[in-house]
Amino acid sequence: MGAACAKHLADFGADVVKIEPPGGDPLRRAGPFARGEPHPERSALFLYLNANKRGVCLDLHTDEGRHDLDLLLQSADVFVTDMSLAHAGALSLDEARVEALNPGIVYTSVTHFGRSGPYSDFNGSDLVSFHMGGVGYDTPTAFVTDIDAHPPVKSGGYQAEYQAAWTAAAATMVGLFHRDAYGRGQQIDVAAMDAVASLMRDRIALYSYSIGDIPESRIKSYYSYLWPCKDGSVSMSFTSAEWWEGLKRAMGIPAWMEAPEYATRQARRQRMEDVERKIINWLAGLTRKELVEVLGREGVPVFPVHSMAELLESEQYRSRGVFVEQRHPVAGQVRQPGPPARLSETPWRIRRPAPALGQHTGAALEEARRLAPGPGPAGANGSHPDAAPRNAESGASYEGALPLAGVRVLDFGWVYAMPHCTQWLAAMGAEVLRVESNGRLEWCRTMGNRGADGIEGINRAYSFNALNDSKLGVTLNLREERARALIKELVSISDVVSENFTAGVMERMGLDYDSLCRVRPDLVMLTATTLGATGPERRSTGWGPNIQSYSGMAAVTGYEGGPPVTVGGNWPDFVTGTVMAFSVLAALYHRRRTGKGQHIDLSMAEVVTTMLPEPVLEYTVAGREPYRMGNRDPMHAPHNVYPCDGHDQWVAIAVTSDEEWHALCEAVGRHEWATDPRFKTSASRKANEDALDDLIAGWTRNLEPWDAAKKLQAAGVSAGPVLSVFDMLADPHLAARRFLVDMPHPDVGPRTVASLPARFGAVPEIPHRHAPLLGEHNSLVFKEMLALPQETYERLVTDRVIH
Asked: Is 742 an annotated catalytic residue?
């Protein structure tokens, strides 16, 4: 997690010094290996995660190594670590000591359960964090028919850890803004469990707003998201009336689709099996390419389910250079995922290959000695020269101050991903002006959104209120030229514009980046689309399941031997929203130093592909197409989700060493398992995994999930219950870490919603405000910010320009 967090900082320009022990980072021993030979300088995953960094080798168990680390810390802006609290303390890297060395440092800790809360000393793993974060309980979405026979499944790859890394990177940028404003660093505490739980923010709000008849997410409820066709699978949706009509036209308007018993969505739901059978029969005669063409013409969202090989050949990806070559002096050329976002002034690129072990030790330490504070008042007690608050003369307060105060964002984003991005910015003090229209209400205010307590209303929708807190809300009819003129006036006093319309929409309104730069030359503008703002498929529109399919995620997610499936938790909307927030903060940080704005072109599918390095490298380096393995791991066993006592109750267990295996055997009282020849080594356990899983399931089946998990955690084994949203709402760890907050709202009263998935030492309580009522701040924004005369304002309201 720490390596990936630091990768994002390095990829966007930071000088990152990677510190390794004498034996090297364990990732150097992970495959796949370039040239097919295990070698510490040829691990493709290590190369992917550590390009653009410098490498230093230190033995932190010696006085000399700790002294050298102190030098590096004294000259650093940021310290990123994924050490546990106990490990960091043993190496004298606790927060208090690091702050004494350098009060200006941003100390970012990213671990599985964080440095505070009841689970802070738990042993973690990607499997356990994913399932304790709630997304596992929702995966595979709307797929299974027997929920007790089909356990929750984790996503392909290591998404809990990569989501935590992006969260830590975005939070680190917040910390840098805070330091520059107030002159002091802080500790930032990110937990993978919180980061995964953040992907459930929509469902957390749903359960808080309307606890009642809410179906279990894995149960097949209304059509599959993924459909078999002539040469594979496609992601297709026709849940809306518009999409159903488009599907009818594509199928030639067969008589059965015109029959009264299929006329409404509810009627079709009641005949789900019959509807699916008839559509599958039609799909069987068409290839993925043919379906994309015929359904795309009718406006039906449809995307191919790509294998890794097909991703490499995607015309859209090839046109945008999604995959790049890292040229390494030992490993040679390694083809890997490239930019997660494209910034016009500071483009992503590989500036240097991953370092050899200890390659830059001498140079980095010499540089640190030059930069370390010298004798005298500033450095007498080891403090950093930048420790004095830069804004001290203005009376600015450090504790609780918000780092983005003074930044104004004009936000056109809607649905999930972009609102989550600007939610980050608003929570950290930016003034976000949320632009809506009565002519086309935001999807989250209307479609599929239960109103609080079953009472409908545009200000009562759970999704909108959960994703738009702390923002101001205005309404404009953008079909009107006068409304677009008002937008340009707002742009002239704004720092950021964010939008996620279909490619070309802003340009047709005269609100594209080039046009808006004539109004505000140093503007930062974020454009987020399904597949990117350029390329032959740039006008494709889709939602989460479509993006999972195109990006490669669906191909590597699912039960072993089963078909591809989709990940729950509105994945990947909130993942990409976090990456958007990081990208905007990086662009604003660049502008503060250079005065230059820039355009950010972000493809949601490309973000997902960059979070699948293991499957991509397995294909590009080893030549093997990865396969779906459910909750299992390529190397370790036991590593699975096991049934517990009760309906749909499960526990996740991950053993990654012989020591942990012996600890498990001791904890469950099965000493004979440890000496059984089938299970003595990691390789033998993997070879006999079915038998091993049966034995462990026999033990867990008679226990409550928490009873099994706590017994194993006490023995040092990574384990945790698979939490549902109901469980999360009552979870003491999420409550203690203030991830769940009670948000007051004038129309619906206080409701539990998700806060940001990071703890900030300088902002212990994030001052959330309720989401805006529709048009709530029209008067404030247009009459006060733009100084429109009362008569002009009233005329624009009467003419439905402000509407």
From this structure: no
